[in-house]
Design brief:
Elements lengths: L4 E3 L6 E6 L4 H6 L3 H9 L10 E4 L8 E5 L12 H6 L3 E5 L8 H7 L18 E5 L2 H22 L7 H15 L2 E6 L3 H4 L1 H7 L9 E7 L6 E6 L1 E5 L8 H4 L7 H15 L5 E11 L11 E3 L5 E3 L7 H14 L4 E6 L3 H7 L5 E4 L2 H13 L5 E2 L17 E2 L8 H10 L8 E5 L3 E2 L9 E2 L4 H14 L1
Parallel strand pairs: 1-6, 2-4, 2-5, 5-6, 9-11, 9-14, 10-11, 13-17, 14-18, 15-16
Antiparallel strand pairs: 3-4, 7-8, 8-11, 12-13, 15-18, 19-20
Length: about 475
């Protein structure tokens, strides 16, 4: 992606004119008659989505582009994505000395393809290079785009090739690139220290043994930032088995781990003044004679006892042990990502990750950051009144409320049992999936909430 953005030093480039419904007619009046005739012939009205048109110049190489955007005055990350996908190979700059700013992200992401499983990879028609005078933003935009594509590629990879061992390997590659350290607790070693991670993952084959992967980076005396990601590499539902249709996308149930790894990557690349602690419990929720059962009571690292109501509510179990470890190591802030509940999708749809937080300032900072970088999130409440839905007659709590109501909230309340009130904590219940293609956002794995979290961290730790 490095070659797709370049410093504008006056080199030859095709001009891109941006218009919206308010500015189109004024721009049209300034064009020569032949261009106005071309616009009319193509019924180009400056109001239709992200439509664009190539405009001929005086000679074969002297052509330009006009493209409709939602708002000329405020470019979004996605307003140039269609051009990044569709324009011919070449170099481009915006007209009138306009700088692309956040739109550089969509330009890059539009040119990424996940072709690992195609016998004939996609024809991307060469490289389309965008020029900018904001040279300081080129590297930052590249870093963000690579973090997003890391999430997409990990989620899109079939479960056969993205098991617990592969997630561990991603963390090790990241550690090697940034001078971090990795420790892994796996298989039977988990039983005493991380009993819920062990219970959920023990039914998988030896080659896909469960593990807790931890990465640490930064000065030991810096504030500890814990990033936790749910790494269920495939979720059959366990003995409460899903339907075939329900399992079809369950390769993406490690989307939380992908988000956590990508966020850790950004933290290290931008050298935030933190002591980073990445924790990824990686398991396969499989079915075998060793599967944990409905009605079982599991130990936890924290010492609580959890009665299993539903083996398909496994993500919160493995996160509970990982959150406990983050707290033991005195995290100053905890952020977790998980593809946790279908209830969050029923409430908010695929585009909006549900965000829960036990700290008002943290919640406010996340919402502000999400708006700043156009990475929408929506806060849902940690409603104390629903805590009673987690009551067990046998143990300290159940893992899944029997009520059909407020499923995403009760899941978040379950996780809250493992985080002290005084430790700022945010939980993202994210879909990690784009169900229908949009410019720069192909159908498949997607990073949702990642950029918002990173923008908040940069603001928070720069301020501190």
């Amino acid at each position: 992606m490095t070659e797709l953005l370049a410093a504008d030093q006056g080199q030859p480039a095709h001009i891109v004119h941006l218009v919206d419904s308010d500015s189109f007619q004024d721009w049209r009046k300034e064009q020569p008659q032949r261009i106005r005739a071309l616009l009319d012939a193509n019924r180009y009205d400056g109001e239709t989505g992200y439509a664009y048109l190539i405009l001929p110049g005086e000679n074969d190489d002297d052509w330009s582009v006009v493209s409709t955007v939602a708002n000329v005055q405020e470019l979004s990350p996605w307003c140039l994505a269609k051009l990044g996908e569709a324009l011919p190979e070449g170099t481009y700059r915006l007209a009138d000395d306009r700088q692309p700013g956040p739109a550089m992200l969509g330009w890059l992401l539009a040119q990424h393809r996940f072709d690992d499983y195609r016998s004939n990879p996609s024809d991307t028609a060469g490289k389309r290079v965008l020029l900018t005078k904001d040279v300081n933003e080129i590297e930052r935009t590249r870093q963000t785009a690579e973090a997003v594509t890391l999430v997409r590629d990990m989620v899109d990879t079939p479960a056969e090739d993205m098991g617990p061992a592969q997630i561990e390997e991603r963390a090790r590659q990241l550690a090697e690139a940034h001078g971090a350290t990795v420790s892994v607790t796996r298989g039977g070693e988990l039983e005493s220290g991380y009993p819920m991670v062990h219970a959920v993952g023990r039914a998988a084959t030896k080659e896909r043994a469960p593990r807790l992967v931890e990465l640490e980076w930064g000065r030991p005396d810096a504030p500890r930032l814990a990033i936790v990601g749910k790494g269920v590499v495939f979720d059959s539902g366990g003995l409460d088995i899903k339907s075939g249709k329900g399992m079809r996308l369950m390769k993406k149930d490690m989307g939380g781990a992908a988000h956590a790894i990508a966020l850790a990557k950004l933290v290290m690349e931008r050298r935030l003044p933190v002591r980073l602690h990445l924790l990824v419990p990686a398991v396969e929720n499989a079915v075998s004679g060793d599967s944990f059962r409905p009605g079982d009571v599991l130990d936890t690292r924290k010492g609580l006892k959890v009665e299993i109501d539903n083996t398909d509510a496994e993500g919160r179990l493995i996160l509970g042990d990982a959150l406990t470890k983050a707290v033991e190591d005195e995290a100053a802030m905890i952020i977790d990502f998980a593809t946790l509940t279908g209830a969050a999708r029923v409430a908010l749809g695929p585009d909006l990750p549900a965000m829960f937080a036990n700290d008002e300032q943290l919640a406010s900072d996340l919402i502000s950051a999400s708006q700043k970088v156009s990475d929408p999130i929506w806060r849902l409440p940690l409603w104390d009144g629903y805590d009673e839905m987690l009551k067990s007659t046998l143990a300290d709590m159940v893992n899944s409320a029997t009520s059909p109501f407020a499923g995403s909230i009760t899941a978040a309340l379950f996780l809250r049992r493992f985080v002290p009130e005084e430790t700022p904590w945010a939980h993202f219940d994210t879909f990690a999936w784009q169900p229908a293609a949009k410019p720069g956002r192909p159908k498949g794995g997607e990073a949702l909430g990642l950029r918002a979290a990173m923008a908040m961290l940069e603001e928070r730790f720069a301020r501190d």
